[in-house]
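Subject: for your reference before the review

Hello V.,

The reviewers asked for a structural picture of the protein, and I figured it would be easier to keep everything in one thread rather than splitting it across files. Below is the amino acid sequence we used in the manuscript, unchanged from the supplementary table.
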Amino acid sequence: MAGWSAMAGMHDFVVPDEAAAQAFAEQLAEYGFPCVFARPHPDGGWLVMALDEGPYPVDTVGHRQIEAVSREAAAIARTYGGRPSGGSRFDVSRMAEYRSWTAPIEVRGTKARPPVPEVTVVPAPPLEPLALTPDFATPGIVELAGLDDVPWGDLEHAHGSAADVPDLLRELADGTGEWDEVLDELFGDDLLHQGDCYEATAPALPFLTELLVADAVPARQRRDLYLWLMVAGGRRNDNLVAFADLPLDEEEPLQPGAWAEEVFRTVGDQVPVLLDRWDAEPPGIRFVLAVLAAQHPGHGVRAADRIAALAAEHDGTQQGAYLRLAVELVHGRNAQALALASEIIDWADSLEPEWLEAPGVPDGIKAAHVLAEGTLCTIE
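And here is what came back from the structure prediction:
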């Protein structure tokens, strides 16, 4: 957005058929969008595109305003059996290009712009550096018990056979490779590629716990392992929030993507062992461990008092806000957790307010998603 004078955008939606597209387009024009276009969607249904001329300021307030307008339009889309399908943002200087579009359905409205809901943006609390010391790890080779008992060659990850997974895990355990590159290949490229879970993802996770409990990995690298466990377990919640607007049969429950539920359960199984490390870990890791515990409150509640004490210690900071949210989640106070998540989204401009409105998603899952995603923004 650098160099933009002001922002405009296009809001995209998918509805079931041409009749719904025509009616929805007319409703969007009545709502205030000056130009609405619709055409068949290559994956089925009809794509409806509403031009939002704004102008919106090119800052956090403007971003929140245009996203709020998009959410209001999404609510209208649902009345026609539709759902949001992305869109675009651009400088207002490109307006003539978008106004000149043509499509099988074109509806030109008489209003200049849709109503802009009031948005709240407050200053963010300070981000506090959390120490990774003291660190009592003693470097050495870690024996990964049972690694060869897993039939890796019969399992798959993002790029086919998972036969390479044990070698990558051994590189981490032996300290023979470039840590960041190996870890990114293992999880970022293979086991959690583009946020998806795979058949081999869950079986690999207990070996991260083995690396952690061996006390042979330095604190920064241990934090990496805790974070990947948090990210892996968070895929279930991320899927549920992201899929909330997809059309479902009336009797079909909202489900996460393939393997995400198994991965979530496997991460949860690691939490009790990891919480036993609380007193040995430095503050920078206790913070991530608290968030991990909050994703699995059935196990994490045993650490509620320690998380609350850590939250009080860091009161008034971004990490303190996330820890307060973690306390509510481990206690199962999901309505209170959602309220705290809403407060965080008011100042965390990298988080999306629409997560809090995901239809059909329980409050605790929405709040836990905000917690996990926000935590990642605090890690330098």
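For the response letter, the relevant points are probably these. Confidence is low (pLDDT under 50) at residues 248-252. The first strand starts at residue 7 and ends at 15.

Happy to draft the paragraph if you're swamped.

O.
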